[in-house]
Amino acid sequence: MNIANLITLGRLFAVPVTIWLILGDRLAIAFWVFVIAGISDALDGWVAKRYNLITDLGRTLDPLADKALMVAVYVTLGSAGHLPDWLVILVVFRDFAILRGALLAHTQHLDVQFELVRISKINTVAQIVLAAAVLGQYASAFIQTWTAGIGTWALMALVTITTLWSGTSYLIRFNEQARSSKPGA
What's the pTM value of the predicted model, to 2 decimals? Predict the structure, then answer.
């Protein structure tokens, strides 16, 4: 266990704290925990690369912590009525479909590579910005002013479009690779 992995574990431990804060209607504090978790995502990667601390554990924990935080925040914000249910379902279903595809490929011993598609990076940024904007409304007058009216709706539209686009891209790539892959490798 190295410092980069400890930072990642801290982000994973931020998940239940963030859920608790949102459900307790402490959204301003939840915003800052979310921001610190986001900073920790950049920090653990930088530390791991800078000090040559990249490990298999880190490669597994980092995306797990990222997805756990995003899914938890979206589900909790939806449950608390701060995000529409349909958007939460869309975001969670996309991640579930990608995970299901990866597990299916693994169990069938298919040589399928789940390379990150560019639209997925845009989708991740859009999801983070939307979650931060919704939480930030309670932490900052500036964010509240910016998100009033069209800001939140524009972000929700962007998240919807990029979630559908990236999810579809992954499914198309998975199907293409699965058809050309030979089982048992």
Answer: 0.87
Token output for 107: 């169990």
Query: Residue 113: CB partners within 8 Å, gap ≥ 6?
Result: 177
The one-letter amino acid code at 55 reads T
CA distance 29 to 136: 9
According to DSSP H, which parts of the chain are helical? Answer: 3-23, 27-50, 56-79, 85-107, 118-136, 141-147, 150-180
86 by Cβ neighbours in 10 Å (0-12 / 13-18 / 19+) ranks as exposed
In tens, the pLDDT along 43-89 reads 999 999 999 999 999 988 998 999 999 999 999 999 999 999 999 99
| 3-class secondary-structure state, position 178 | helix
Contact, 12 vs 65, CB < 8 A? yes
